[in-house]
Design goal:
about 450 residues; alpha/beta; seven-stranded mixed β-sheet; 17 helices; about 35% helix; about 20% strand
């Protein structure tokens, strides 16, 4: 059986994310409103249950809302009190959440939700369930205002709280061992795999960006809040080449350079370009692709926040394309420029990739890049294999390194389609005009980047 994370109160969670003290927390007054006797359904004993919950927790409702400084960044905090009727959402909970989101819009602040809930409150029936619609609308209005939302999943995070404040956030972090899932522990199928309802299981399935130990949470949240709160309207320059390679003499030389095991990969480029980074992981549709690195970072050159999506040289899977599209759309909404690094022999073309919607995923990324109003800069750092590579490329702002190539199809496959023998692959590579300098001449890329000037 999976080990559960230690449970903490709403105010203990606030103290945790504010660095061990809740002194910076200013609580938002409760909006006016009161229940009639035993609530909207006249549920016998409901008043007494709320009174006992209040006496036990010291809270008047299942959520505490206010403003605080997290890692040096101001934010609106929403913290659930699981000890108050299982952190369930009722009408008065909805009042508080709606007021918190309204304050965030008014003060131009991000929202950080510290979620621990069993779902909607049964004693209020459908009047409780429709609070999810209020939360969803408040969340949508915050998105329209260009403000980020972060969620920290505590134990447990289930039901409507997971399906709105949790899974609906831009960045989702979770504490180790937390129960996370739409189905609570008492309503799951008896033969259900318990690992699927854990923070780690949801991370593996692409629904959570990171599982973060409690002592690292303040720093992680602070980094995210700083990164997502620095919009910039100007495009970023492409990285300098990391290898001093002469322009390839032939198309096949270009292919060999790009396929060399010694060639610098995406990780090296990201390390050189950024002084700090935070990673988005997962497509929110059940998948992750370690061959697509996505996130936000601080430019080492000028301190700006830059979103990045980088292929690592493997065949990109549908989850990778969906994650990149998610990254581009989030950056676009927040006004943050994007850097993409292209390096793939092509999209994964196995049967499982087809079942996972490879075509639709690639189309979605093409659409996200094509419609982005934030500037996108692309650097081709290795193989550029067909549409699976082009989907990540900015139409008018793509650059290339000297050890890269871009082709409508790999030379070997082109020769096979043309019914040419293996001895004609090299000649076919030349005919395709895939060298970096050919790409410039064809107008496909703007230029070939030079290596960085040595420091000192």
């Amino acid at each position: 059986m999976a080990e559960h994370a230690p449970r903490c109160t709403a105010r203990e969670a606030i103290a945790l994310v504010t660095g061990g003290t809740s002194g910076s927390f200013e609580e938002l007054p409760a909006p006016p409103g009161a229940y009639g006797p035993d609530g909207p359904l006249a549920w016998r004993g409901y008043d007494a249950s709320r009174a006992r919950a209040g006496a036990r927790t010291g809270e008047e409702e299942s959520v505490v809302c206010g403003t605080a400084t997290v890692g040096g960044a101001p934010a609106v905090l929403v913290s659930f009190e699981f000890g108050f009727l299982g952190g369930s959402l009722g009408e008065r909970t909805g009042d508080r959440l709606e007021a918190a989101y309204a304050m965030a819009r008014e003060r131009r602040l991000p929202v950080v939700s510290l979620v621990a809930t069993g779902g909607s409150r049964m004693q209020e029936g459908m009047r409780a369930l429709v609070q999810l619609q209020r939360v969803a609308r408040a969340s949508a209005l915050l998105r329209q205002a260009g403000l980020p939302q972060l969620a920290v999943l505590r134990d447990p995070t289930t039901g409507g709280g997971w399906a709105t404040l949790g899974a609906g956030a831009d960045v989702v972090l979770a504490l180790p061992g937390a129960q996370v899932g739409f189905a609570g522990s008492r309503v799951r199928p008896p033969d259900a795999d318990p690992a699927a309802y854990t923070a780690l299981g949801q991370f593996t399935a692409g629904a959570i960006d990171a599982v973060v130990p409690p002592d690292e949470l303040p720093e992680a949240l602070g980094l995210w809040l700083r990164l997502l709160g620095r919009p910039s309207a100007d495009p970023v320059p492409p990285p300098a080449a990391l290898a001093a390679v002469s322009p390839p003499a032939t198309g096949w030389d270009a292919v060999r350079n790009a396929r060399s095991p010694a060639r610098p990969r995406a990780g090296a480029y990201l390390d050189a370009y950024f002084s700090s980074r935070a990673v988005l992981s997962g497509d929110r549709c059940g998948g992750r692709d370690d061959g697509m690195l996505c996130g936000f970072g601080t430019s080492a050159a000028d301190g700006r926040t830059v979103a990045f999506a980088a292929q690592t040289g493997s065949a990109t899977r549908p989850a990778g394309y969906r994650t990149a599209a998610r990254l581009v759309r989030l950056a676009d909404r927040l006004g943050i420029p994007v850097l993409t690094l292209v390096d793939t022999p092509g999209a994964a073309n196995d049967a499982e990739a087809e079942r996972q919607g490879a075509g639709a995923a690639i189309a979605d990324l093409f659409g996200a890049v094509a419609t982005a109003t934030t500037p996108v800069t692309t650097l081709l750092i290795g193989e550029g294999g067909s549409g699976g590579a082009l989907a990540l490329a900015a139409p008018d702002n793509t650059w290339a390194t000297p050890d890269s190539y871009f082709s409508v199809i790999a030379p070997e496959q082109a020769a096979a389609i043309l019914k040419r023998g293996p001895d004609e692959v090299r000649a076919t590579a030349d005919q395709l005009r895939i060298r970096p300098q050919d790409l410039v001449a064809l107008g496909v890329v703007r230029g070939v980047v030079d290596p960085a000037e040595p420091s000192g």
